[in-house]
Amino acid sequence: MAQGQYYVPHTAKWPIVGSIGLFIMMLGAASWLNGAAFGPWLTLAGSVIVLVMIFGWFADVIRESQQGLYNQAVDISFRQGMIWFIFSEVMFFAAFFGALFYARVLSVPWVGGEGTGAMTNELLYPQFDATWPTAGPANLGGGFETIPAFGLPLLNTLILLTSGLTITLAHWALKKAQRGALIGWMIATVVLGIVFLYLQATEYVHAYQDLGLTLGSGIYGSTFFMLTGFHGLHVTLGTIMLIVITLRCMAGHFSKKQHFGWEAVAWYWHFVDVVWLGLFVFVYVL
Questions:
Q1: HEC assignment per residue over the chain
Q2: How much is the pLDDT for 183?
Q3: Would the pLDDT of 117 be above 90?
Q4: Overall average pLDDT of the 120-147 stretch
Q5: What is the pLDDT of residues 212-223, one digit of tens each?
Q6: Domains plus CATH for the chain?
């Protein structure tokens, strides 16, 4: 393929397969939340279709890349696509951080009687103590305790920061064509990601069983589990991506000059690290 020629892929079935899978998965999830007996099974079926789409589509892209069908123009388009994807993820988490800010800085004090909320407080919630954390005026979910910041959350912060270092060292090894060091640092990054997920699952079990902190614990519980839960989902996806590119490193798929598939995952992992730092500060510490 000429250097200035842009590669046009063959007609692919994967976009329509992915659309069908996502539709079935979301229909199943909505049915599940509304108590339909078939909801879990429909969600599972949609999830399986989406996974098949992901593996099939990425297998095609990897195969085309290994066949030398991509040039600099395609590489640039991949980079632009990944930048926009990460930007969309930034906006996704910005919405939830915004909800936390609105509830904590504006809504809770207003319901507690500050500003123009004095009349609302006097008529509806005269006994409400506008302090954070709170389950709200109705005390939804009952009493709860919060998770100390300088326990498992701090340990998880150190783990993610360390994983950012190990993947950077892996990138250095890749650019130096040191395959052994690359694979070693990638395995270390994968292990750190798995340990983070295990500790977060342990934290969730402790919150539900011992602290009374659940998704139903008012505004604090909902914002806490939305932010940390969606971040945990992103760490899960990132860890799966790390495992895939580690296997590709073992297969010798990347060179020191052409390895954007590897770089894209590294960008995503660094994004996950940065989001967690924001979570640690604004959810656990402050």
A1: CCCCCCCCCCCCCHHHHHHHHHHHHHHHHHHHHCCCCCHHHHHHHHHHHHHHHHHHHHHHHHHHHHCCCCCHHHHHHHHHHHHHHHHHHHHHHHHHHHHHHHHHHHHHHHHCCCHHHHHHHHHHCCCCCCCCCCCCCCCCCCCCCCCCCCCHHHHHHHHHHHHHHHHHHHHHHHHCCCHHHHHHHHHHHHHHHHHHHHHHHHHHHHHHHHHCCCCCCHHHHHHHHHHHHHHHHHHHHHHHHHHHHHHHHHCCCCCCCCCHHHHHHHHHHHHHHHHHHHHHHHHHHC
A2: 95
A3: no
A4: 79
A5: 898 888 889 999
A6: 1-70 (1.10.287.70), 72-285 (1.20.120.80)
